From TrEMBL:
Protein name: Septum site-determining protein Ssd
Organism from which the protein derives: Glycomyces mayteni
Domain Rv3660c-like CheY-like N-terminal: 21-133
PANTHER family attached to this UniProt entry: SEPTUM SITE DETERMINING PROTEIN (PTHR43384:SF11), SEPTUM SITE-DETERMINING PROTEIN MIND HOMOLOG, CHLOROPLASTIC-RELATED (PTHR43384)
InterPro entries in the cross-refs: P-loop_NTPase, ParA/MinD_ATPase, Rv3660c, Rv3660c_N
Highest taxon, organism lineage: Bacteria
A Pfam family assignment: Rv3660c_N
């Protein structure tokens, strides 16, 4: 169960020792491993009065319901980043019903109510961001409007340009129909975790441990398939990988499949923008209709990227959006000319110079630009 009550967004604070105020051993056993995985110093306080000295100084205060009333009675001063934290076992018959805790949460002026183990990821994200004094990295995505459009090249070029600019970048390949983004990056023979290994893992995925275990070159880290063991990518596994990547890196780039999957939906929803690659020929635009309809349900910020000799939208052509969404006609965000040097340079970990370099950097900047979140109106659309 994620945060049921979330009246404020907890923001980063200086790295210091946070406190867990509880005498409940089961709650402590659930919370302390999460803090350890986040690298966040956390001290358990078993008596409410003993929390007084750290109440204002601690970056985060986690309070168990067993001592919540005592904390209220001690009239501790208001502060940010208080979380009322319990276990599913404590909630009893209905682990999704935390309404019994809401009055206590309001009295504590808590930012949220969570129950473990269901909220492990939420708590890990909070503690990791707090100790790192950072916010999650932006996500951008690319998808081919039709076969051979070159979305993987766009994704790899954008990631490589970001690395050249000094940003630590994670490139995630969700397109099982392609040849593998690690091969395009020249890292196919490098050891490291691929999707099957990540799917077999258990427990929380530590951000730095993820990046250390991936195939990489410099600041570029690759999450890709294993050609010897092709397998579907579970959405919950993708969620863990994306969360860890966004904490440890400066930018996350996702290569999406044309056939929408649950993991791809999660990626599109998290992305600032989704670039739809369009190749030469008027029929290329026609072929992209189904892709834009599929992903337009989950991200209002779709735009075309022209490849090779592709032209802008033919006169009179309408790019259909999903009926369930508030749809704006997608713009053309840029063009990436066909150049035989580009795949070779990207395999070598290099970025081209001259006109092609400017096109790559301009496109990466456009895709990474922060955009307002426009709500999508769904009427029973399947996710």
């Amino acid at each position: 169960m994620a945060a049921i009550l979330d009246r404020r967004t907890a923001t980063a604070a200086p790295a210091a020792e946070s406190i867990l105020v509880t005498a409940d051993d089961r709650l402590a056993e659930a919370v302390l491993p999460v803090a350890a995985a986040a690298g966040h110093p956390l001290r358990r306080v078993e008596h409410a009065a003993d929390a007084a000295a750290s109440w204002q100084r601690a970056p985060v205060v986690l309070v168990g319901p067993d001592l919540g009333t005592a904390c209220v009675e001690l009239d501790f001063p208001p502060r940010d980043h208080i979380v009322l934290c319990t276990t599913v076992a404590w909630l009893g018959n209905d682990p999704t019903d935390a309404s019994v805790l809401w009055p206590m949460a309001f009295q504590l002026q808590a930012a949220g109510v969570i129950a473990l183990p269901g909220a492990d990821d939420w708590l890990l994200d909070l503690l990791t961001r707090t100790v790192r004094d950072t916010e999650p990295a932006p996500v951008i995505a690319a998808v081919a409007g039709h076969g051979g459009a070159g979305a993987s090249t766009i994704a790899l070029a954008a990631a490589s340009a970001a690395v050249q600019d000094g940003r630590r970048t994670v490139l995630i390949d969700l397109d099982r129909t392609g040849g593998g983004i690690d091969a395009a990056a020249g890292l196919a023979s490098q050891p490291g975790w691929r999707w099957p290994s990540l799917a077999e893992g258990s427990g929380l995925l530590e951000p730095e441990r993820l990046l250390d275990g991936l195939p990489r070159r410099g600041g570029l880290h690759i999450v890709g398939p294993d050609p010897r063991n092709p397998a579907d990518i579970p959405a919950d596994v993708f969620d863990q990988v994306l969360r860890a990547a966004r904490i440890a890196a400066d930018l996350v780039v996702v290569d999406l499949p044309r056939d929408r999957t649950d993991a791809a939906v999660r990626a599109a929803t998290a992305a600032r923008s989704v670039a739809v690659a369009i190749g030469p020929g008027d029929r290329s635009w026609e072929a992209a209709r189904s892709v834009t309809a599929a992903y337009g349900l989950y991200n209002a910020h779709l735009g075309a990227v022209l490849r090779g000799d592709a032209r802008a939208r033919p006169e009179g052509f309408t790019w259909d959006g999903p009926r369930e969404a508030d749809w704006a006609e997608p713009p053309v965000w840029g063009a990436l000319p066909t150049d035989r040097r580009l795949p070779v340079l990207l395999r070598q970990g290099r970025v081209p110079r001259g006109r092609l370099a400017r096109a790559v950097h301009d496109l990466t900047a456009e895709l990474s630009r922060e955009r307002p979140r426009r709500g999508l109106v769904r009427t029973g659309a399947p996710r």
